[in-house]
Amino acid sequence: MNxxxxxxxxxxxxxxxxxxxxxxxxxxxxxxxxxxPGLWIGGGLTLALVLAALLSYVWTPWPPLEMxxxxxxxxxxxxxxxxxxxMGRDVVSQLLVGARSSIFVGLIAxxxxxxxxxxxxxxxxxxxxxxxxxxxxxxxxxFAFPAILTAIMLAAVWGPGMVNAMIAIGxxxxxxxxxxxxxxxxxxxxxxxxxxxxxxxxNRWRITWEHILPNILAILIVQASIQFAIxxxxxxxLSYLGLGTQPPQPSWGRMLADAQTLMFSxxxxxxxxxxxxxxxxxxxxxxxxxxRDLLDPKISEGGR
Length: 304
Fold this sequence. Notes:
Elements: H1 4-35, H2 37-58, H3 91-127, H4 129-143, H5 147-158, H6 162-188, H7 192-199, H8 204-240, H9 252-259, H10 268-295, H11 297-302
Helix pairs in contact: 2-3, 2-10, 3-4, 3-6, 3-8, 4-6, 5-6, 6-8, 7-8, 8-9, 8-10, 9-10
């Protein structure tokens, strides 16, 4: 039987060996990152979204909620760079504040799915048996209710709004993270370092926390970036249907809904938020693909 001192020294030696072995891989990862075009494109578009959202807290060309009916549907000019909408609100100001709404909804929705889904996925992989089967059947039931349908049900009970949209999208994300986490964890439970940890007397929960979770973080980061893009699309769709962000709070989906009756007379009012959504989702997809290429051991080692 291993004594605490022996186990501690074993952990120290293992940690030192892992640190020494990971140093060359970190250097290779850094070199690949500098040469990866998808990382630059995706990172640049995502950074532009974040900067636009942060800028909206301290400055917008015009107050985003200020309606000037005598200045409605103005063309682009030096005063209103992208013109005004049907209520006389500045389009640029609405786009900046809409970026804030998209990021906020995406972060909360992905956070709900990440925290709950990861915990349940790790539990399923650690316990196996009836617990794993129960969790998987729960994910099957959840998959039967997409985000839009869940938002409709929540709106019928509590009314439409941003909070209900975040909850609906978050519930939709949970089964995805459960399956990704469980698959990654199951692949690690048969690895030599996990068997060595069990031989040292560590229980399943300690192994899960100290060895399984750190080694699937890369997978979870990549999945989170993909789900973030999906959450932004879902929020725009829910807002377009009137189930998400409610007026007068600006939202890209609400801007599309307001512009649909003006498609023939003022089509650019729909183009601006549509392009913003498309570039944001494109950037997050580029970023997710780049992170997958860089963090997936099979791909990164194969591309050396």
